[in-house]
């Protein structure tokens, strides 16, 4: 389980790439591929293995002028789900 | 949008050379000689063309891709083209220095094959003494180099009972993923079918093992596993459909809709030495022949699954019926479906002897 203090990073072998041909971004994994929706992409672009989950939520809250607590909860849930799929590690 | 979907992945068969001799090797039974292999610069161009065409991933394969002295340069070229690079290797030619060079060249992932979990049997199947022990060392080096590892186990009657041990091995070696691939019966494997086809009971045990392991190891190990054709009721969407998702380039430069397609008669496959990958993908007769559903006849034509499984595997259809355009006999609706049950029966009385992939000729 991730917490606000966790520092998420892409799991080994995962790469966030632009797929220009299809006009989207994808997370590449061997034999698998995840296509993040717009919100997930915003979050994934901030995942760098240095920022904590809290720091990521902070940036997003400022960017979208949204309540911090709500964004933190959403980000936590989303990254938890991606961790369950093996995309995110911490 | 162009009239064709863009491919997602390229299988680059860099060479047919390999120190192993697996009796189910998916290479064609007539192997390309080293002198006929594409050079580094041509591969680099193929990678750029693949990326421009829409490919996101390249599988660097063979034969044994690390038998090429320029494997690090090739990997770098693929990575610079923007492709996610996966090395499909038997591992026995790798060492710490080579892995370091590959990682520095931008390699994203290593897929290492093992022939069994039991060393003696693994070495016998691969036809290479001491191979298994080397693979285990290499797996640890891969992990130490910070590269993600998938363990690939090709399974059949002579090793399927050790599936639990293969799962344990994947965990022990720090693999994030285990691919359990049933042998596909064309080329070398078809010659060895009686020695390789698993029994129904073995298969049921294996499926139960995988289901339990997936539950227990969730979050630790991803297990890829598909029920093999010879015991299935519906075929697989081979390659996701002919000319839809995937293309392969052979060591000598032939662009193929599937790595086994060279076994099909009556095809003139375009060669990347003369043709761009885009022309091959979009314009060639070979890629268009079995594209979509227009080529199908009964029972596929009009079937509600036609765009789900695309009529199954063309190579298997040809290998078993002599007609590459027939419904894959793996489908229970095929009038030739009975052939599979007959093969399973015949194999039950088969021995353990293999016809190994032919050893390399001198200098090749
Ligand atoms: S299947 Fe075996 S013989 Fe064929 S390329 Fe792979 S390791 Fe070599
Ligand atoms: S008849 Fe053809 S399309 Fe229908 S399920 Fe069988 S193989 Fe697939």
Short description:
Chain A contains 3 helices and 5 strands, in the order E-E-E-E-H-H-H-E. Chain A has 90 residues and is α+β, with helices and mostly antiparallel strands. In chain B, helix 2 links the parallel strand 2 and strand 3.
Give a verbal description of the structure:
The complex is a heterodimer of chains A (90) and B (364). Chain A is α+β, with helices and mostly antiparallel strands. Chain A has helices at 38-46, 53-63, 68-84; strands at residues 9-10, 15-19, 24-29, 32-34, 88-89. Chain A has one domain: Arc Repressor Mutant, subunit A (Orthogonal Bundle), CATH 1.10.10. In chain A, a hairpin with a 4-residue loop joins β2 (15-19) and β3. In chain A, α2 packs across α3. Chain A is globular. In chain B, α1 (40-53) links the parallel β1 and β2 (57-61). Chain B is of the alpha/beta class and 364 residues long. The A-B interface holds A 11-13, 15, 17, 19, 21-22, 26, 28-31, 33, 83-84, 86 and B 6, 8, 53-54, 56-57, 82, 84, 86, 108-109, 111, 146-148, 150, 176-177, 179, 218-219, 222, 224. Bound molecules: iron/sulfur cluster (2 copies).
Q: What would the average pLDDT of chain B be, to the nearest integer?
A: 92
> Largest chain-chain contact?
A-B, 17 and 23 residues
Largest sheet of chain B: 9 strands, mixed
CATH domain topology of chain A: Arc Repressor Mutant, subunit A
Provide the helix percentage of chain B.
25-40%
CATH homologous superfamily annotation of chain A:
Coenzyme PQQ synthesis protein D (PqqD)
Helix content of chain A: 40-55%
Distance between the termini of chain A: 9 Å
Q: Can you identify the CATH class of chain A?
A: Mainly Alpha
The helix/strand order of chain A is EEEEHHHE
- Strand fraction band of chain B? 5-15%
Radius of gyration of chain A: 13 Å
Counted by DSSP, the helix tally of chain B is 14
